Amino acid sequence: MANPIVALVLIGFYIGFSRNPDLGWQLVRDWVLINGGLSALGALIAAAHPLTVITAFLAAPVTSLNPTIGAGMVTAAVEIYLRKPRVGDFSQLRHDTSELKGWWRNRVSRTLLVFLFSTLGSAAGTYIAGFRIFGRLAG
Question: Which of 137, 115, 135, 138 is nearest to 127 (CA)?
Answer without folding.
Answer: 135
